[in-house]
Specification:
Layout: E1 7-11, H1 16-26, E2 30-35, H2 55-58, E3 65-69, H3 74-84, E4 89-92, H4 98-101, H5 106-112, E5 117-122, H6 137-143, H7 146-150, H8 164-187, E6 191-196, H9 197-203, H10 206-215, E7 238-242, E8 245-249, H11 254-261, H12 264-267, H13 278-289, H14 294-303, E9 308-310, H15 314-318, H16 321-325, E10 329-334, E11 337-342, H17 366-372, H18 377-385, E12 389-390
Parallel strand pairs: 1-2, 1-4, 2-3, 4-5, 5-6
Antiparallel strand pairs: 3-12, 7-8, 8-9, 10-11
Helix pairs in contact: 1-8, 8-9, 11-14
Amino acid sequence: MLLNSMKVVSFCHVLQGPACTQYLGDMGANIIKVEPLGGERSRRWAGADMGGASGLYLSAFRNKRLFAADLKSPEGREVILSLIEQADVVVENFRHGVMARLGLSYEDIKKRKPDIIYASGTGWGNAGPMLARESQDLIIQARTGLMSATGHRHGEAKAVGSAVIDQHAGALLAMGIVAAYVKKLTTGEGGRVESSLFTAGLDLQTEPLTVYMSVRPGAQTMNRDPHLATWYHHAPYGVYQLKDGEMAVSTNPVEKLAEALDSPELRELQRLDPYKDRDHIAATFAKVMSTKTYQEAAAGFDKLAIWYGPVHDFDDVAEDPQAAAMEVFRPEDINGRKVVLVNHPIRYDGKVPPLRIKGLNIGEHTREILAEHGYSGEAIDDLIARKIVGSPA
């Protein structure tokens, strides 16, 4: 694989950091995931039974070896530093200041490993008044304006139905680590990489923020017909109800839509401005679409190359032939239970990266990792007996 020479020690929990290291692990990096002796908190996240593991944990557990240690003990910290001395990258996504209190800050580690790449995935970044506050995807959706822009009226915010910011932040952090690793391979120098949920939430909205910050039209511009997906696209960009389902329709000239649907009502709107008059156009288009079946609308749209698509629920996605062709889902056995995982999103030479490691039990690979780093069997047994490190019985 692409990154099989990269060695990473991860102090990551919940989703942002684990997503980052899963991307790296899928690309071949050797990931050592360090957890407290009781395991990281995503293991205890509420949700359906997934073979004894939470859905949150299983969404980002792939291709990592598991190491458990008492990070608060000086001896446990020394063991961890011995692992880091043979690594290229340290990744952490604790709140600002936590790693410093553990004696594992960038400055601490750089003294032992001058060429380390130290990557931090924080909530709020490395400056500003919010550093000490907890953060979480939903909170960042609210703070960055994403909720407000998703709602159809100002003051009626609506959350996105997934932890999109956590996932995006993890991908950005992985991208930054790969860039720093290329630099290290060419110059021998390490460095600091920092990503945050806050900046990731804003980065997700680059197009609308560029428009809004340049024009500053005022919050009332968010108010729009409920069929319209965004405040900054021309009508009819949005979702419309048909007799037998829903259809997403992108930006298309009203005259083409009128011809495709053979609609006198839409022909009367051809001279209207598709942005200034977006609500009137959307409402009229919705009325016309409600009289059509999906196939009737699709037949007219296909003739004129109009952009559209069906609105699927997750049951539809499970049976989608495109998802099957792209090998999006991976059924796996997790402690005797069938669980369906979502594969790595990129294909390399046309193939999905393999699932090399299913790390499930706290400290599952502690013995193996310590042995690789020069610890004798007796020394490992002693560390486990004194609960400096953890390993399954």
